[in-house]
Design a protein that fits this description.
Chain A is mainly alpha-helical and 218 residues long. Chain A is built from six helices and no strands. The first copy, chain A, starts with 24 loop residues before the first helix and ends in a 7-residue tail after the last helix.
Amino acid sequence: MATTAHPYWPRSLTLPGYVASARPGWQSAGAVAAGGAGLLALGWAMGGATRSPARRLAQGWFLLCAGIHGVLEGWFSLRHRDLPAATGLLADVWKEYAKADSRYMTSDDFTVAMETVTAWAWGPLSFLTFLAFLRQHPARYILQLLVSLGQLYGDVLYFATEAQAGWSHSDPQPFYFWGYFVGLNGLWVLVPGLLLADACRHLARAQCAFDRPPHKAR
Amino acid sequence: MATTAHPYWPRSLTLPGYVASARPGWQSAGAVAAGGAGLLALGWAMGGATRSPARRLAQGWFLLCAGIHGVLEGWFSLRHRDLPAATGLLADVWKEYAKADSRYMTSDDFTVAMETVTAWAWGPLSFLTFLAFLRQHPARYILQLLVSLGQLYGDVLYFATEAQAGWSHSDPQPFYFWGYFVGLNGLWVLVPGLLLADACRHLARAQCAFDRPPHKAR
C-alpha cells in the first residue's frame, strides 16, 4: 500500500497521500549547501575588509540564517500539512531532511510551533542583525543576542523533545542521525552559543563604561 | 475504575495510578499565591527606596520568578513521571494547575523539555538578575534580557503547541481555561515582553554612548 512505502522512521508511521521525492537526496541537500555557501560568502564579502575575520564570518552566518529561516523554515511553517504530497525543490529538501526527523512529515505540534517562530521572528531578526553590523547600529549586539538565544533555546528544546520521545523519529543510519540530525542541529547550538557569549561581552563592556560617572545609570 | 476517575481533559485520558489531591484546590492555589506575594514584596522591599517604583516592582518580579521556576518548576522537572500518584503540597499544586493543562499529568514531551529549561536555566538566571540589580552590576540588563526572552519564547511555544493540539487539554470552565491557562501564562508574555523592551532600551543607550569616539567599537 502506497501510504506505508516511505523511508521515514519509525517504520510503522503512516503518511496518507505520500508522494516520493522526484529527485535524489543528494540533489536536494546539494542545493541547500550551495545556497547556504553563497549566502555565507556574500555576507563575508559585504562584511568589508576593515573588520576582523571572525566578525566577517559572523556577518556571513547571519545572512545564511536569514536565508534558511526565511526560505526553508518559512515554507515549512506555511506548507507543513501538505508536505507528504507536495512536490518541488523545497518539498524535496524537507523530504530529504525528514529522514533524520520524521516529525517534519507529520506536522508535529512542537516542531511546527518552533519552526514558525524561527521563520517569522529569528529569520527577519537575523537579516536585521546583518544590516545592523553593516551600519554599526547601536542595536547590533542586542540583535545578535536576541537571535542567538532564540536559536539556541529552540534547538535545545528540539533535541530535548526528541530525547523525551526516545530518539524514535530518525533513520538510525549514521549519515542521517549523526550527519543531518546531530551535525546540522549541533551547529545551531555551537555557533549561537559562541555568538551569545560574544554579544554579552560587548554589551557588558559598553554598560560598564556607561555606568561610570557622569553617565551613572539608575 | 480508579484510573479514569480524575478531573482532567480530554475526559478520555487515562492516568494509571492516579491519586486525587488530599486538599481542596483553593488551598494549593492559595499557598502559591501567598508565597508569590511574599517574594514580590521581599524583592520590592530589598529594591531600596532610591530606585523607581517600576524598578522595585521588576526586582520583586525576578525574585518571584526565581522562586516559581526554582521550586515549582524544579519539582516538576524532577518528579513529572510520578505526579499522578504523588502526594504533598507541590504535587497538589500541579494537580490543581493541570486542570487547566493536562499535559502536566502525562509527561508531555514539550512540556517537560520547556519546564526543565525554565527550572534550571531561567530560574537561577532570574535570581542572578535580582542580585545584579541590587549590586548595579554591568550585566544587569543583559541578564534581564536573557531571562525575559527565554520566558517569552517558552511561553509562546507553550500556547502555540496547545493551539496546534486544538486546545484539548484544559477544563473548558472559564476559571480554569481563562483564569489559570490564559491568565497566568498571559502574565508571562506581558511582563517579560515589557522587561525585554526595557532591557533593549537601556543596552542600546549604553552602546550608543560607547560607540562615540574615543570608545569606537569594532
